[in-house]
Amino acid sequence: MINTIDISGKWELFISENNRTSLPDNYNDSIILPDTLSDAAKVAENKNRDEGYLTDKYTFTGYAWFRRSCTLESDMTGLVSILTLERTRVSTLYIDGAEVGTCDSLCSSHRYDISSYMTAGTHEIVIRVANVGYKTGGGHMTSPDTQTNWLGIVGKMNIEIYPKSYISDVRVIASADGSLSVRGLVNGADNAVVTATVTAPGGIRVLKANIISDGDTFEAEFRLENAQLWDEFERNIYSLELRCGEDIFNTSFGFVTFSGNDRKLLVNGSEAFLRGKHDGMIFPLTAYAPCDVNDWKERLKIAKSYGINHYRFHTCCPPDAAFTAADELGIYMEPELPFWGTIAAKGEDGYNEEEQDYLINEGIRIIKDFSHHPSFVMMSLGNELWGNRERLGEIIDILRRENHSIFFTSGSNNFQFWPAEIPQEDFFAGVRLSRDRLFRGSYAMCDAPLGHIQTDKPNAAYDYDAIIRGENGSENEGGDTIQIQYGTGVKTVKLSAADGSYIPHKPVISHEVGQYDYFPDFDEMKMYTGPLVPRYLDIFRERLEEKGLYTQWRDFFEAVGAHCTQCYKDEIETALRSSELSGFQLLDLQDFNGQGVSLVGVLNAFMQSKGFITPEGWRGFCDSNVLLAKTEKYVFGAEEKPSVEILLSSYGKGKIKSGAVQYSLISDELDINGSVEFTSSDARLTSVGTFVPDFSGITKPQKAVLTLAMGELHNSYVFWLYPQTDVEITENGIKTADDELIFTDSVEKAKVLIASGKKAMVITDGSNAIENAYCADFWNYHMFRVISESMNKPVAPGTMGLLIDKNDKLLSAFPCEKFTTPQWYEAVTHSKADILDDTPDVTPIVRVVDNTERCHRLGMLYKKNGILHCSIRLWEAADVPEIKQLAKSITENF
């Protein structure tokens, strides 16, 4: 390239909801590009209050014409001029009133050859951009749930000047064995000499060679001895210069190889583990993804501080700046075609040739523009696809011809309940291997059965190894149909006899892990200073105010958030304990403001902490080196002597091969300390050793903290310990050694008993109550309530956890936190949540927090009209230590 003319800046503007057959005569506004109409506030304000996603204050659907003049001092028609637009919608270019062409890529730059128009003098440039007429739905490239269907141009805007013979379409593939493949085109010359120069990190030239083109195509293979590899630990970036005559082409690359050994993911030949996050390119201040490297570095650095080493882009592809930032920081990137639907074969129902051709071309454009980046290691054909498996494999074959080093999947969570082998796939990303073979901890109710974190007593022992190996689960006999969640709707699909028997022999990645729903932070409203505003917060606030609950939102936020964060810890540690799993993709580290408002992040949408855990604390269970405690539960009686196994998950440059793990278990009455020495195997997961704590000496209920430490590694767990207690619980009441509490079914009976000097508590009958759940709610109540109802399936309870008045005297012998912890699992499981909407003066001792759609005032233990009420069926868990202690505390402190 000889020169670049920057055409960003002030442009005249004309907008219309409808297209025109001729160019506008009167441009009645102006705009500074790059930008969008929404960010520049170029249309009337949208007063809608969108409940399910951020409201775009200046949303607009239609067409925008941008006009400016460009003056050339000399004739350039003997050169090649390419007008380039980075990140726009469907663009059409006009020079001096003549149409040059149209580009429709949502992910790659638009390039127009305007060489014949580059005469000396002043020229009029008009760019029409439309955010309608897409050949595919666009996924999260165009969704109101994420970056919106903005209209504008948001990246670089240049006219690039090249000599008559110039280099283009360069592909660089560099592998961990030191092999380097370089190919491309020399436009305007045959049998040209291309000089390749490779410079290593540090500026040392390591290769210089001439390549002779075959016609207009050149290709060469090289091998570098002792190549410095690129991965998450060592970000070694090489530069490549290609010269042909007057033209110089520069790019960067890195030596990296993703591969699989059966179910093990290998990076540069060594076992690795992906700690990924979903990304839908949510940028609340602008609505569009930035094209600036520093912006992306800031974002990715935050993710990396939480142990993230992988980004999966949901039905979208980030701009070049994101890959550059990932190159420098060591993040494994997985762009995805902007598609969420069905890929049928020719002749099948739903076959859409135009759409498939577009998606294939979009994939080729993505690979062409971005795959030289060492961080671009993986690629997906779309999200939760259905259709023809053979056709999906054919599309992988087509894209692989563009760059054979990319690690491909046919899609993220394809065929949902019944995935099957697609030979061309390099890895499998999903959530289950049949209806019952689940390898994620949580699911929507419409996709039941639910996950172990939703159904099992909290523990640190569960793993997915037997499930992935196919040692349990179900198979489908074939021929039937099922209803499935399809996007944010419902679809009926037909199964085949092969479905449900898939045992993968390639790396397995768990898809969209987590989705634990945090309570809204109403203080966030003031942070939205751009075109997007969370007017749903106004709706949620009004609902809470109507129920008299808004003044307690901060307590709800803190209690629900602490519980959700623990659910994420359990989820991530389950993945790390699974030797057959090669990684996970969180949904999410940050909030997702769409699809009904899914506040599922420990960070908000701005990638700012909500205050529940520090990055260092999160990395204690989400990093390349993690100490893990494996134990069947978190709650123990004094008579129990559990075996606690210590595991080490370790790989990569800093893999720990030997050492000693220090452990301590500290409470009011315990001070257990020890050390276990170990030597690790070559595998990622190592059993360090076990210890057996003795609880027989405890005399009171207490919280105990187990800490594992080795050098800079730390992880901790909370146990709840209970002494042996002489408590008898029946359907009639509670008896302790010195006291008795009688259960009754009415306030009147309770008053009579109390008047006679007895203790009485009303056990509510559940007639004015909702189902209760220990685990945090999944994604958001609204979206999956609608889906479940449309499928005639049960609706999730929708509760979000407990808010506990831990200082109430009734709980004085039952130490606890203000939020849900494992000692409440049995109580919640054996209860309903009573609806107290008609008693706004009641403040429950143990409150159940409801979701922001329903906003019930809910309680499990509360006083109403001076009488104690309880919805917990204590007798159903009469022999459980924590229930006995809870019953004792209530009875003796009545």
From TrEMBL:
<dbReference type="InterPro" id="IPR017853">
    <property type="entry name" value="GH"/>
</dbReference>
<dbReference type="InterPro" id="IPR008979">
    <property type="entry name" value="Galactose-bd-like_sf"/>
</dbReference>
<dbReference type="InterPro" id="IPR051913">
    <property type="entry name" value="GH2_Domain-Containing"/>
</dbReference>
<protein>
    <submittedName>
        <fullName>Beta-galactosidase/beta-glucuronidase</fullName>
    </submittedName>
</protein>
<dbReference type="InterPro" id="IPR036156">
    <property type="entry name" value="Beta-gal/glucu_dom_sf"/>
</dbReference>
